[in-house]
Every structure is written in C-alpha cells, then in structure tokens.
What we know:
Chain A is mainly β. Chain A has no helices and 11 strands. The radius of gyration of chain A is 13 Å and the shape is globular. The N and C termini of chain B lie far apart (33 Å).
Amino acid sequence: DVKVTQSSRYLVKRTGEKVFLECVQDMDHENMFWYRQDPGLGLRLIYFSYDVKMKEKGDIPEGYSVSREKKERFSLILESASTNQTSMYLCASSSGTGGFRETQYFGPGTRLLVL
Amino acid sequence: SQQGEEDPQALSIQEGENATMNCSYKTSINNLQWYRQNSGRGLVHLILIRSNEREKHSGRLRVTLDTSKKSSSLLITASRAADTASYFCATVLMNRDDKIIFGKGTRLHILP
C-alpha cells in the first residue's frame, strides 16, 4: 500500500515563526502536492512538484514556499506564519507522468494553529 | 454551478439504504475522481472515471459520468455506518494545464 506520512498531526505556532511541514512518501512517486483545507472552501492547491528540485505554484502560493531535495520528501515552508494560515494541510503524491490526471494518495493531514 | 460542485451538501440516511451524491462541473475535463474523507483525516481515493467512460464500479460504489450534462454521480449501495464521511469530487481540467479542482464535498451520515 502507498503510504504518505506527514511529520505532525497537530501543530501550534506563533505569528511570525517559520514553520516547516514535512511530507514523505514511500512509493517512489514522481509527483507530490500540498493543499490546504478550510471549512466552506474545500481543498486548495498551494504548490506541487513533478520531480526532484522542481516546483510549480498552485492556486494559493502566497506566503508559502516548498523544497524537494529528495524524491520521497516534499516540504512546505511558511516563511512567517500568520493567523490566516491556520488550516488543515494535506500532502499527496501520485505516480507517472500524468500529473493531476493520476490518482492521488493523501497523507493524514497536519492541523496547524497559528496564534 | 462552480467547477466540481457536489450536491447535496449534507445527507443523512438509514443504514442499509442507498446514498447518491452528485457532482456538476462547468468546463471540459480529462477525468473526474471521487474521494472520501473521514473526520479529521486525509482523503482516500475511491474511483477515477475518464471523460470517455460512462460508468465504473468498485465494490458497493458505482460512479456515472454524463459529459453532455457535465455531471457525475456516486452511488453507495447498502450503506454501512463506516460509510459516514465527506465525499469529494475532483475534476481534472483539459484547459488549465491539467490542474485539479476539488469540490466542497457532501457530508454523508449513516444512521443506525
């Protein structure tokens, strides 16, 4: 079975802190994605990556950056956390060259609270 | 309707009944995917249906796609308490570099 793990289930940070959310997949998938999920807004794509050291902006990249130094790991970075970044963050991965056309496998999510 | 909009927003049915959820979209798609999310957890992929397919089955799940009406439906037969979850459709667009757009979901509650 595909396994996507996220470093924390719950995280509490203060405004202005730099926050790292880590995601690791164990199936040698080429594609990795970061979403945030908010009530009433559904899932929104923040960043994605089709290959190591490659990144593409999603629909809401402002205030975030990403890093993909190894194929299995995709990190989301909040450079200076703000209260409006309080959310559920979901990482996903998929195989192949079809990008979004392939089935995505999600991690359990990280619920981030910024005070 | 918005791209990938589920209907109804919430649904409560008795255990053993069938549950039907619908998804409508606006622009041409490459494929449409259905996912389930248990409370506070990640999403789990259920079925992917391509634009040239009309129906797919997986166990108690049946998905239909009508591209002329730009709509899809997810049918869960003989519902169980474990089916209580939120269900999302996700459309992969043809004209936006294959970006994916998730709907806001249908919250399904199975009553004992």
